[in-house]
Design a protein that fits this description.
Layout: E1 2-6, H1 10-21, E2 25-29, H2 37-41, E3 45-46, H3 50-56, E4 59-62, H4 67-74, E5 89-92, H5 98-110, E6 114-117, E7 120-121, H6 124-129, E8 132-138, H7 140-150, E9 154-159, H8 165-193, H9 198-206, H10 213-224, H11 234-251, H12 256-270, H13 282-285
Parallel strand pairs: 1-2, 1-4, 2-3, 4-5, 5-6, 8-9
Antiparallel strand pairs: 6-8, 7-8
Helix pairs in contact: 8-10, 8-11, 9-10, 11-12
The protein binds NADP nicotinamide-adenine-dinucleotide phosphate (NAP).
The site of NADP nicotinamide-adenine-dinucleotide phosphate has 27 residues, from helix 1 and helix 4.
């Protein structure tokens, strides 16, 4: 199968590399062209527009920063939709809102092609290790025909029915993640601020019912409070909170804690921490 891949950021570059390693023919495009080089060295072809990627691929995957970025590669004369035709597929793996997913599905089907939204859970390392969780929704036929390609990027792949459901699932998932991370930051600030040893605090957390891989990964980084190299950029987590709150508003669901967590992330953005890892939100919580 010929696969196109558009959006070679932290996640996309690792996911496209795994498709190549899995023996697929891959054509890539990225706004910043130099990000294509590493993949080209590993055997990927480089196209000169998203449209050109879609024209030469059976299935075109996008992994973009946010809904605006999806629209910028999807629409217009050089966009993905312009390169689609009957028999082709478009899979958007970016985390976006339901409206963007529905619009992508509609535009894709107008060209006679099939659509899946397939956002992922798991960060830089799971993307590199091909152990992502992939939440897919949309055209079942495309899910079935592209499952072997999705399996080259993820270990848990779940089909959720009609398009929109994968975005809903992903936003609910990240709401939990941001809340847990915030609780960890506050617990660590309280423990350290009251004279406790951070390593021992993490040891206690890790030995009980609230032990989890994220605390294990981010805890030492938060304790060190020096570098927060981006695995999941903070600006993307704030985008997910914004989209989750908007979804909650649409269905009339109050999200008391999440609304407050969003304010923390907005504050971190205002402090210039958008490109750091989302764990850098601890800088807003921790006393200097
Ligand atoms: P990233 O490193 O910031 O990469 C974003 C990609 O979007 C880059 O290819 C960037 O191109 C492109 N882009 C941004 N704005 C654009 C625009 N206006 N026009 C065209 N291209 C644009 O992001 P990431 O961490 O890979 O995340 C990608 C998606 O996966 C996001 O929706 C994120 O929420 C989601 N996600 C991320 C993680 C994670 O841990 N990182 C985990 C799960 C889900 P340039 O290279 O030119 O900037």
């Amino acid at each position: 199968m010929k696969v196109g891949f558009i959006g070679l950021g932290i996640m996309g570059s690792a996911m496209a590399a795994n498709l190549l390693k899995g023996g697929l023919q891959v054509t890539v495009w990225n706004r910043t062209a130099q990000s294509c080089q590493l993949l080209a060295n590993s055997g990927a072809s480089v196209a000169d527009s998203p449209r050109a990627v879609a024209e030469c691929s059976d299935v075109t995957i996008a992994m973009m920063a946010n809904p605006e970025a999806v629209r910028s590669v999807r629409d217009g004369v050089d966009g993905i939709i312009a390169g689609l035709s009957r028999g082709k597929g478009f899979i958007d793996m970016s985390t976006v809102d339901v409206e963007t997913a529905l619009e992508s599905a509609r535009l894709t089907r107008e060209k006679g092609a099939l659509f899946l939204e397939a956002p992922v859970a798991g960060s830089r390392k799971p993307a590199e290790d091909a152990t992502l969780t992939i939440m897919a929704a949309g055209d079942r036929e495309l899910y079935d025909s592209s499952l072997s390609s999705l399996e080259k990027m993820g270990k848990k792949i779940i089909f959720l029915g009609a398009e929109g459901n994968a975005s809903r699932m992903k936003l609910a998932n990240n709401l939990v993640m941001s809340g847990m991370l915030t609780a960890l930051c506050e617990g660590m600030a309280l423990a350290a601020g009251s004279g406790l040893d951070s390593a021992q605090f993490l040891e206690v957390l890790d030995s009980g019912a609230i032990a989890n891989p994220m605390f294990r990964l981010k805890g030492p980084q938060i304790a060190a409070n020096t570098e927060f190299p981006p695995a999941f950029p903070l600006k993307h987590m704030q985008k997910d909170l914004r989209l989750a709150l908007r979804l909650a508003e649409e269905i009339g669901q109050p999200l008391f804690a999440t609304a407050m967590v969003n304010e923390l992330y907005k504050s971190a953005l205002a402090d210039g921490l958008g490109d750091a890892d989302f764990a850098a939100v601890s800088r807003v919580i921790r006393k200097p």
